[in-house]
Amino acid sequence: NELKDKAKSKGLWNLFLPESEFGAGLTNYEYAHLAEVMGTCSIASEAMNCAAPDTGNMEVIARYGNEKHQEEWLQPLLDGEIRSAFAMTEPGVGSSDATNMQATAVLDGDEYVINGEKWWTSGAGDPRCKILVFMAVTNPDAAKHQRHSMMLVPMESEGIEIQKMMHVFGYDDAPHGHAHIKFNNVRIPKDNLLLGEGRGFEIAQGRLGPGRIHHCMRTIGVGEKAIELMCKRGIDPNKMPFGKNIANLGANFDYIAESRIELNAARLLTLDAAHKMDTVGNKIAASEIAQIKVFAPNVVLKIIDRAIQMHGGEGVSQLTPLASMYAHIRTLRLADGPDEVHRRAVARLELGKYIVR
Questions:
Q1: Secondary structure (H, E, C), 255-294
Q2: E-strand spans in the chain?
Q3: Which CATH architecture has domain 2-82?
Q4: CATH number at 84-194
Q5: Is pLDDT of 109 > 80?
Q6: CATH for 201-352, options being 1.20.140.10, 1.20.1250.20, 3.90.110.10, 3.40.50.720
Q7: Of 40, 92, 222, 291, whose Cβ has the fewest other Cβ atoms within 10 Å?
Q8: Helix axis angle, 28-39 relative to 252-280, nearest 10°?
Q9: Averaged over 31-44, what is the pLDDT?
């Protein structure tokens, strides 16, 4: 709380929101540089109220919520008084297809009745989490991308049961946590629907575009931290195997050089995507957004792996942040869609340039 108060007093608060009514009014390109800096420290994003999944959820409520939603849920999130979670991924289906969903929300009078399961509901383990942005099937007979709706589900709703907290490479990420949740006849007011029935996929795509820029630039910040640790280890006078600095042994010079080159390339690719989103819109920037979602995590994983190798056994221990950095960045190759889905999107968009219509 002390860090949050300091951040607020210096105007370093809600920097991610492009709408100046609610946030700093920065462009994606402007915010990208700040997200990179935040990525170098594991608590920086939360200290500035710029942590996922709250960032995406606040954008959803700001763009698609009504005045009541914004007063009841958005304002406390903007003030840092509560936290939120995003419930989309399910355990019983192949979730790499974002339309593949079994959870249902059935209208019954003035209420939706929700049944189903969600997992990897990041943030739901936090006692400050008060609201879920939830996606379910409401129109099973509609076209594939019009079957789903998005709605706001209070965590205190009767019938919400946390089955277990999911671990990531053994890390429980407490208190944030990733929950497997069961919904048993959970009733919410029909007014908690966002935008309209059948608009869930549309909202999800709008939410994930900026989120991928945020993830990738924070990832690049993690890469910078890994290079810093790698270089400091490489010239540590207390670590001199065979009488030489570790940097001078084996391929370590190449590791450092490759890491710097690859990270700079990832940064430029991400900034290009951010600029394109700002100037021509998310839809036209779809290929660039998909490219960075593949490229940035893979590059940074290689950099962290090199840093671990240069640290020896210490690199996989609790004595450096490298092991937890690796676990976190590895999940980004799955979060918001796996690499394969994004590669497929890039290939389809590229081929589309040459198809004669």
A1: HHHHHHHHHHHHHHHHHHHHHHHHHHCCCCCHHHHHHHHH
A2: 83-87, 104-108, 111-122, 129-137, 148-154, 160-166, 178-189
A3: Orthogonal Bundle (1.10)
A4: 2.40.110.10
A5: yes
A6: 1.20.140.10
A7: 92
A8: 150
A9: 95
